[in-house]
Amino acid sequence: MTISELTRQAPVLSTRDTIRRAAGLIHGSEGAAVLVASNGQIVGMVDESSIARFLSASENLEEALGSPVEPLVEPSPVFVNSALTLREAAEIFGNTDADMLPVIDERGAYRGVIYRSDIIGTLTKTLKPPTVAGMATPLGVYLTTGSITGGAGNLGLFLTGVSLMLMIAASSVIVSGLESAFVAVSGIKTYIYHASPPLTMRFNVYDVVFYVTTALNIGIMLLLLRLSPLAGYHAAEHMTVHAIEAGETLTPDSVRRMPRVHGRCGTNLLAAAGVFLILTTKVHSELSVLVALIVVVIGWRAVGSWLQYFVTTKTPSEKQLANGVAAGNQLLERYHERPNYQVYGFDRIWNLGFLQTASGMLSVGLIIYVLEKYAHIAGLERMLF
């Protein structure tokens, strides 16, 4: 690998820019210096040390911050060629105090900058992507940076959708069975009340059946999810992502110490939507929407974290944990090969995995719909003939 794979685009100052802007750009960058250009050519860099010395010697701080950076510009110790290997770049950084150097191509044209931390991170295989997302599948953990993927592939994501839809269907069948048993025992024909779902927010005793069966459907579906292997793989996915973000070496022991709950999990969004819908349909007030928004803003993370811990994740088995570690190591290995690789548009959406999962759910939903239609038609034929 050459350093061209690690070259990044970084902001470049003009010699007329202020010291305040230079300090701001350095603070927001990966290094302790920023390049300076004049007439389209890189003339050097300004680092934090030179800014600190200048400010400490100034009597008027505000006036000093508004001064141009030109007096503080120091020539770059070296311009590195984009064709250099990582070891050659490491040797150059070892002979200079700079933590960032400008990169040029064979024609001497500026191509970006290379950071010392990126060189060391790649050589030691500790370089980590800015963000990692993932999903649990029946085939194991799926991880992605949005551009690079690791672990279970598209089939696993498709089967996640299939599994979720089967759980929804199973919960519906179980609730229907429980309701039929209740009708047989009590003689109350509860199915009549399903013909008229709630039309207003005001409480009506005839709507109790609707609310009870809906709650049972949701509760049983969540119970099935908790009991399924998906919950274990979901926990392994979260724990692996935590370990990557913490810079840990991915081993079963290091990942096992990580928490099961993750702040960026889609369960949090699901919880926020659920809380909002419940409050807006149950609070009998014109202020219900405002109340729901306030509660969601304040408590959606807490509700989402609770759902993650008690419903959508469970302590992973050794096999599930090892699968998460393997998926994480595969993702990092691919990332180290192409750390600056980016995809956009449909490819990025596809890598997130939602389309594959949705297709699995739709496929099962379509099959169930066709079977129900066939059963309905067959029932009518028996009645007529």
Overview of this protein structure:
- With about 375 residues, this protein is mostly helical.
- It has 2 domains: about 5-125, Roll (CBS-domain); about 135-260 and about 315-385, no CATH class.
- It is about 55% helix and about 10% strand.
- The strands form 3 sheets. A 3-stranded mixed beta sheet has the order 1-2-3.
- It is elongated and about 90 Å long.
- The relative contact order is 0.11.
Write the layout of secondary structure elements.
Blueprint: E1 12-14, H1 19-27, E2 33-38, E3 41-47, H2 48-56, H3 61-65, E4 80-81, H4 86-94, E5 100-104, E6 110-115, H5 116-123, E7 133-137, E8 140-144, E9 149-151, H6 154-186, H7 208-227, H8 229-245, H9 252-256, H10 266-282, H11 288-312, H12 318-337, H13 346-352, H14 354-384
Parallel strand pairs: 1-2, 4-5
Antiparallel strand pairs: 2-3, 5-6, 7-8, 8-9
Summarize the structure.
This protein has 385 residues and is mainly alpha-helical. It is built from 14 helices and nine strands.
Rg (C-alpha, Å): 29 Å
| Helix content bin | 55-70%
- Order of strands, main sheet, comes to 1-2-3
Number of strands: 9
Q: Helix/strand/pairing class, anyone?
A: mainly alpha
Structural domain tally: 2
Output the helix-strand order. Answer: EHEEHHEHEEHEEEHHHHHHHHH
Shape: elongated
Q: Mean of the pLDDT scores?
A: 86
Main β sheet profile: 3 strands, mixed
What's the end-to-end separation, in Å?
76 Å
